[in-house]
Design brief:
Blueprint lengths: L4 H30 L5 H10 L4 H13 L6 H14 L4 H13 L3 H14 L4 H14 L3 H14 L4 H10 L4 H8 L7 H10 L3 H8 L9 H13 L3 H12 L3 H4 L23 E2 L5 E6 L9 E7 L6 E9 L4 E14 L6 E6 L6 E3 L5 E3 L5 E7 L5 E8 L10 E13 L5
Antiparallel strand pairs: 1-4, 2-3, 3-11, 4-10, 5-8, 5-9, 5-11, 6-7, 6-10
Helix pairs in contact: 1-2, 2-3, 3-4, 3-5, 4-5, 5-6, 6-7, 7-8, 11-13, 13-14
Length: about 425
């Protein structure tokens, strides 16, 4: 640009704009500094520095609404309103306004503000949450709150626990949740059942389970329920769940005359309920062996590394038995170089009573399938659940690190005597 009045004017304008930008930056920085402590005095000063900042008016509304020493609901409402005039899309100011209206007893205005807030943020899960809780806490429109909660968990299933927590805190019944929040939403059934189990709500879990199609409850959820019922000594209910889980495969789980599930390991190990549970310990590998078995297609293999003095239930299973009867456990065990005097043995122990305890001879060394290992025991009147296990007990001897291999197959549990 050539020298002259035009260039001088341009330079002056550039310097002026730069100065205005600098002033604005300084004002914003100062504003941020004084807002680190959002007192009424600091916020009032911030408004003078940057009068068009909607956030400052919103913060003033919060102070006027919630600060015990400066509370003035009418002024809070004014500040929220000013914030919205400065920025009509300021959603937090709308929900703040709704809460202030509600606190001031202006119920109609509160719900108008809430509805506006919802329309402004239609796809925001935080917005849905705030609106649903607002309806739940501040009105008798529980149905409206449920409508928003339904949308919320459809958008983000990960929020189910949070929603169920609020429902229970507001004393909504399990049946109400089932009939409203979960109606026609089978995909949510397993997670809701899991919630009830994890929060110890036994009766609600059974009410839910008995009122929905069990086909819609995944096997994993059924297993959790069964274990939960066993833990709470609801054995008959647990066994009903178990029988429904195995369903048409019952003949694969129970051989004729045997009360023990999956005694030949021909079905997958369930690790819970009334099926086998496999133990875990360092230096022990427990696996299904398809190459070496007495009958059927596979056996259970156990391999000890020789590095550890193991104390372990290799496998265990709970069995529901009739009291005042005697029982015989038979099992075939093959071993190869099983070291230490503390080898493997079978054990029968009362699950919730201490009046049942029996164990077989200890198996060590190398043995063919040969004759079965047997164990006989009786169940007294006040016992009904027995834990059957294959164990290795920790040794106190110097040479105590067990090494070698074992295979188990053909387990049966037979009732010997019928009670009176």
């Amino acid at each position: 640009m050539p020298e002259g009045p035009g260039k001088k004017t341009f330079i002056v304008l550039v310097h002026l704009v730069s100065l205005l930008v600098l002033i604005r930056l300084v004002a914003v920085a100062y504003n941020d500094i004084i807002l680190k402590k959002k007192t009424l005095q600091n916020l009032s000063l911030a408004i003078k520095i940057i009068p068009d900042d909607a956030g400052n008016y919103y913060d003033l509304g919060l102070v006027r609404q919630y600060d015990l020493f400066n509370r003035d609901l009418n002024r809070a409402i004014e500040f929220y309103g000013t914030a919205l005039r400065k920025n009509p899309l300021f959603s937090r100011a709308l929900i703040g306004l709704a809460n202030a209206y509600q606190a001031a007893g202006r119920k109609r205005d509160a719900f108008l503000a809430v509805d506006s807030y919802r329309k402004l943020t239609p796809n925001n899960t935080d917005s849905l949450w705030r609106v649903a809780v607002f309806y739940l806490v501040n009105s008798d429109r529980v149905d409206k709150a449920m409508e928003y909660f339904e949308k919320l968990i459809e958008m983000d299933p990960g929020l189910q626990t949070r929603v169920y927590d609020v429902c229970y805190q507001m004393k909504l019944s399990n049946k109400y949740i089932m009939n409203h929040l979960l109606k026609d939403k089978a995909g949510l059934y397993p997670s809701y059942l899991g919630y009830l189990i994890s929060h110890g709500k036994l009766d609600d879990a059974m009410e839910f389970y008995n009122n929905v199609s069990h086909k819609l409850i995944y096997e994993k959820s059924g297993m959790k329920l069964c274990n939960f019922l066993i833990k709470n000594k609801r054995y008959d209910d647990a066994f009903s769940v178990w029988e429904e889980m195995i369903g048409k495969l019952r003949n694969r789980y129970y051989s004729e005359g045997s009360l023990l599930s999956n005694g030949g390991f021909e079905s997958d190990i369930t690790n819970g309920c009334f099926g086998w549970v496999v133990g875990k310990a360092r230096g022990v590998k427990i696996y299904e062996d398809h190459s070496l078995h007495l009958e059927g297609r596979r056996s259970l293999g156990i391999s000890f590394s020789g590095e550890y003095n193991v104390d372990l239930d290799v496998i265990r299973q709970l069995v529901l038995l009739a009291p005042e009867n005697s029982y015989l456990l038979k099992a075939y065990v093959k071993t190869d170089g099983l070291t230490t005097t503390n080898g493997l043995f079978f054990e029968a122990r009362g699950y919730d009573c201490n009046k049942i305890y029996a164990r077989s001879d200890v198996i060590t060394g190398t043995n063919s399938w040969g004759s079965p290992v047997s164990l006989r025991f009786s169940v007294p009147p006040d016992c009904g659940v027995v834990k059957i296990s294959l164990r290795r007990q920790k040794s106190r001897k110097f040479n105590n690190k067990i090494k070698g291999n074992a295979w188990v197959d053909g387990l049966q549990l037979i009732r010997l005597k019928t009670g009176p």
